[in-house]
């Protein structure tokens, strides 16, 4: 026996038109699994990579990795969760775009009552990404000046606030005056409009010739060189995404030429690879939200059945902050 629910699936790769609303059966949870009745889901750029086939997964499949809801059934061996618990996740087996689903418990965290399902769906992947970037990959101490690309995006707006709370001067790149204002309102120290300004030259100016010790770059191909040119000698290039396409064909000699630079291509999964590490990172994020040092900017909401429009808006750079699917 199982529960019939609505879910989004793709049978082939392509544009937003390949997203289909279908009925699926959610079976009883297995050992170390729970069934979640989902209340809100997060949309992320990675979802479009799986839809287009840039990232591969056997077809047909669902989409989405982030959500929040209520535990509806508990499998054997589950000790720390019970029916009725509020939970959230930022990484999961692919297939979050659904009314209900089964989840492995080691990828779930309990959601404090002060944080809404919508906030959690907008915060988990982006917030935990900001946490590992600023607190683990390059652990900011306070006092640094850093460069963060796409500062008005979902991860960017959280990073702006987190950096400010840490006493860090974040220089954020943006694509419009509106996005510059948004990043500034969320705590960015300065912004650079990359459509009209030379990023590296402006970083040099803003830092009085010192450049920055770390660049956080989720954009990829189009910002690679500007990022390297903004770094101090022995600085760290953190390439954590490829919204403009993947960085390819890199000659390692360029790192020597530009000052013995370091480069890393981190993922969230490697930073939260146990339930304990996941809970610790989430606790730090939730604490920042509860103290109102970080507020989750939900820029747009869509119904599950309107997910194609959500993908169109995400890919055409029309969105700001977090984009969520609502299920209530």
Automatic annotation (TrEMBL):
Which residue ranges does the record assign to the Enoyl reductase (ER) domain?
14-325
Q: Which residues form a coiled coil?
A: none
Secretion signal, residue range per the UniProt entry: none
**From the Swiss-Prot or TrEMBL record, what is one GO molecular function term?**
quinone reductase (NADPH) activity
Q: Which UniProt keyword terms apply here?
A: NADP, Oxidoreductase
Q: Which CDD domains match?
A: QOR2
Its GO CC terms? cytosol
Stored SUPFAM superfamilies:
GroES-like, NAD(P)-binding Rossmann-fold domains
PANTHER family registered for this protein in UniProt? QUINONE OXIDOREDUCTASE PIG3-RELATED (PTHR48106), QUINONE OXIDOREDUCTASE-RELATED (PTHR48106:SF13)
Q: What is this protein identified as? A: NADPH2:quinone reductase
Q: Which organism is this protein's natural source?
A: Paracandidimonas soli
């Amino acid at each position: 026996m199982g529960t019939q629910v609505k879910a989004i699936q793709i049978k082939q790769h392509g544009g937003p038109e390949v997203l289909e609303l279908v009925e699926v059966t959610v079976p009883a949870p297995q050992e170390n699994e729970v069934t979640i009745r989902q209340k809100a889901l997060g949309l992320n750029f990675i979802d479009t990579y799986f839809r287009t086939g840039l990232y591969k997964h056997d077809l047909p499949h669902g989409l989405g990795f982030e959500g929040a809801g209520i535990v509806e059934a508990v499998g054997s061996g589950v000790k720390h969760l019970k029916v009725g618990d509020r939970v959230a996740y930022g990484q999961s087996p692919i297939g979050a775009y659904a009314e209900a689903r089964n989840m492995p418990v080691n990828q779930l965290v309990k959601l404090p009552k002060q944080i809404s399902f919508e906030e959690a769906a907008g915060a988990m992947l982006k917030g935990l990404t900001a946490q590992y970037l600023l607190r683990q990959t390059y652990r900011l101490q306070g006092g640094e000046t850093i460069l963060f690309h796409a500062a008005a995006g979902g991860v960017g707006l959280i990073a702006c606030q987190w950096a400010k709370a840490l006493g860090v001067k974040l220089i954020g790149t943006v694509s419009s005056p509106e996005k510059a204002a948004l990043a500034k309102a969320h705590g960015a120290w300065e912004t650079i409009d990359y459509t009209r300004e030379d990023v590296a030259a402006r970083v040099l100016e803003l830092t009085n010739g010192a450049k920055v010790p770390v660049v956080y770059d989720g954009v990829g191909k189009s910002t690679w060189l500007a990022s390297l040119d903004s770094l101090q000698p022995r600085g760290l290039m953190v390439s954590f995404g490829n919204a403009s396409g993947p960085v390819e064909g890199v000659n390692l000699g360029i790192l020597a030429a530009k000052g013995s630079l370091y480069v890393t291509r981190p993922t969230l999964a490697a930073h939260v690879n146990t339930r304990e590490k996941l809970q610790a990172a989430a606790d730090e994020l939730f604490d920042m939200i509860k103290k109102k040092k970080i507020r989750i900017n939900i820029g747009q909401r869509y119904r599950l059945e309107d997910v194609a429009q959500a993908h169109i808006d995400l890919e055409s750079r029309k969105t700001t902050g977090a984009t969520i699917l609502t299920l209530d």
